[in-house]
Hints:
By secondary structure, this protein is α/β, with parallel strands linked by helices. It is built from 5 helices and 5 strands.
Amino acid sequence: xxxxxxxxxxxxxxxxxxxxxxxxxxxxxxxxxxxxxxxxxxxxxxxxxxxxxxxxxxxxxxxxxxxxxxxxxxxxxxxxxxxxxxxxxxxxxxxxxxxxxxxxxxxxxxxxxxxxxxxxxxxxxxxxxxxxx
Length: 133
């Protein structure tokens, strides 16, 4: 984001070509709210640190709800990262989360399988890397 004058037009061109863009690990690090209205993105990916805290206190639940509300108000899909338990998945469904990814669906894969999945990803019948809720 050090060169947003270059980045934003580039991302806009990618999106115009049908490439969907996500802000990863939203809620941590460099995911500044000031960029949300300027970046041509399709998805906000809720950082796993908030997902892992679901069911363990009100703080993570409040943050996840806020990110979901913000995403939907901006016309973006929300994707939960790091879903590991059926309880987390059910909570996300009840909150209206759009999609989820994590160990609940698949563990880390060997290199040969990743290479095959990448080949499939660029085929006409490409699977998505997350599960729609």
